[in-house]
Here is the input.
Amino acid sequence: MEHLSKIIEKVRLWFFAAVLLMATVFVSQAQKFGYVDSEYILKKIPAYTSAQEQLEKLSKQYQQDIDAKYKVVQDLFAKYQAEKVLLTEEIRQKRENDIITKEKEVKELQKNHFSPEGTLGKKREELLKPVQDKVFKAITDFANEGGYAIIFDVSNNPNVVFNNPKYDLSDKILEKLGFK
Here is the structure.
């Protein structure tokens, strides 16, 4: 008897799952779907492209500074290698420590500039996040106003094999933002 009740319980669960699946299919057929290419949208916004240019310029400045400091370390090391045989153990140790210290300083500077929490990361957050937030809000508002169930972002998505341009909402989002 207990075995029969377990079978009945499993049948009920399968029946419930099937009904739920059919309901989901019927509901999803009535829902609207679309996609955007956020990268395309962002590239059409002058504030974003300007911010990207500023970040690129700043990144190049930081990299030039770091490269110059690494060059100093390399020159010190080359000079040390050339003079090493002539130096006393005490002077060799001091020079090695100086080179190691300078190299650590350059690596720390590089980390301070280029890590996600570094100056470049903070500047990126400061310049790009407001524009990205506006785009996200425009997409959300558009979805809510238009009754969309889902809007996908296809930028940099290697899993998207095909997107029908008919469902591309990118230009509509740009219009909502005031751009053509």
